[in-house]
Structures are given as structure tokens and as C-alpha cells.
Amino acid sequence: MQIDASSASVRDVYQWMVHTILPRPIAWVSTVDAAGRANLAPFSFFMGVCAKPPTLLFCPVNDRRGQPKDTLRNIDETRDFVVNLVPASLCKAMNDTAASLPHGESELDRFNIPSIPAHRVRPPRVAGAPVSFECALDRVIHVGEGPAGGNIVLGRILLIHVADDVLGPDGMPDPARMDLVARAGSDLYLRGGEGIRMARPD
Ligand SMILES: Cc1cc2nc3c(=O)[nH]c(=O)nc-3n(C[C@H](O)[C@H](O)[C@H](O)COP(=O)(O)O)c2cc1C
User: Fold this and answer.
1) Can you give the pTM of this predicted structure?
2) pLDDT at 19
3) How far, in Å, from the CA of 61 to the mean position of ligand 1?
4) Cα-Cα-Cα-Cα dihedral of 93, 99, 102, 103, to 10°?
5) Using CA positions, which residue lies closest to atom 23 of ligand 1?
6) Average pLDDT of 11-20?
7) 63 pLDDT higher than 90
8) Cα separation, 185 vs 200, whole angstroms
């Protein structure tokens, strides 16, 4: 079958994208607003960009009213954020934080998610995350407008926290020890899976 993305409904295109572009890593993004109130939300349209300069991206779409979500509002105001990665042990907590709380109400407080201060940015990081990236806003690229319109948030990575207990014998993070969850379509999360090791051609 084929789906003509230029004539299908926004909802259908979205469904086909999230059921096909997978597994998607999850950026669990902490931010603060101008008053210093913390916010935490998951985003699975998320990827690294390059190491020079160290850069990642994630994509909060506009909400149903066409307004930026709290995460983007806060980044616009305070210009920094933390991307936390999500182990299976925090999957439920992460999923809880997708709730639409009133602006200014902290998901960290509402769902009792322990956090610790970051070093280089104002938002706190999630204490139980095996990896957290402290980022300064590089730029926001707006793609489309109104409800469901997209925004690409590019962040300059300033500091990477890696929990010592996820490091493997080679000194790099061991995927099995990190036990990260990934997003598939609808309400499905993926965990673990079989690895295939293959040397890269020259
Ligand atoms: C696993 C997961 C992945 C999500 N990925 C995205 C995403 O990539 N972009 C987006 O706009 N919303 C995404 N959402 C929905 C947001 O998390 C949700 O709208 C949240 O309320 C936004 O919070 P905020 O208003 O505090 O920023 C995702 C939700 C879940 C559970």
C-alpha cells in the first residue's frame, strides 16, 4: 500500500510516521520557566546531530490550539534544557509526565520524580537517568504552523552525565546496563532486543 502524505489527513500521516519510524529514542526534557518553575516531558522525535559542535535535536509540535508546548515556551524564555535518557525502571514515570498539566505546575513534583541540580544549566536533571545531556539552546527552526506544526529545537551539548554503573568493560555505556526504552507506535514501548555486531566497511 501507499499513503499520499500530501492528501492524507494530518492524523493519518502522524499515525503512519510513528508506526514506521521506530524504534525512537526518547528525550525526557527538563526545563524551567522564567520564574524558575521546573517542567519535564518526553519527546521521541529526537536525535543527535553532530559532534562539532556537540549538538542534538528534538521536536515539540504545537498543541491543539496551535500554541507551543510548555517545554518550548520555557526554552524560549530561559534558553537551556536537559535531555535525560529513560531506563525501563522509569518508563511509567516518563509516560506519566506526558500529561498536560497547567503551565507552571511541575511534573517532577506531581509524579514525585527525584531530581538533582545540573552543573551548567538551570533545569534540574532526573536523578535516575543513566545519561543526561545539559544543553544550551542553539536555535529553533519552525516547520509549519498552527496545530501540529513542528519545531526543531537544536541544543548545544555542554556536559554529559553518565552513571558509572552503566559503563561496560570497555569504559563505554553498555546498552544492556542502560536498559533504555524506545518508542514505537500508539502506546507501545520497546525494550532490549537482539544485537547484530558488524564491522563497518572502509
Ligand atoms: C513517549 C512519548 C513521546 C512523545 N514524543 C513527542 C514528540 O516527539 N513531540 C511532541 O510534541 N510531543 C511528544 N509527546 C507528547 C508530549 O510529551 C506531551 O504533549 C507533553 O504534555 C508535553 O509537555 P509540555 O507541555 O510540558 O512541554 C510524547 C509523549 C510520549 C509519552
Assistant:
1) 0.98
2) 97
3) 8
4) 70
5) 41
6) 97
7) yes
8) 30
Question: Residues near ligand 1 with C-beta < 6 Å?
Answer: 26, 39, 41-45, 59-61, 69-71, 95, 98, 100, 183
Tell me how far the alpha carbon of residue 15 lies from the centroid of ligand 1, in angstroms.
15
Q: Are 119 and 112 in contact (CB under 8 A)?
A: no
The CA distance from 7 to 12, in Å, is 10
Taking CA atoms only, the protein residue closest to ligand 1 atom 20 is 98
Q: Does the structure show a pLDDT above 90 at 194?
A: no
Query: Rounded CA gap, 192 and 15, in Å?
Result: 24
Q: Which three cell numbers stand for residue 195?
A: 544485537
Sign, CA torsion 93/96/126/110: negative
Domains of the chain: 10-190 (2.30.110.10)
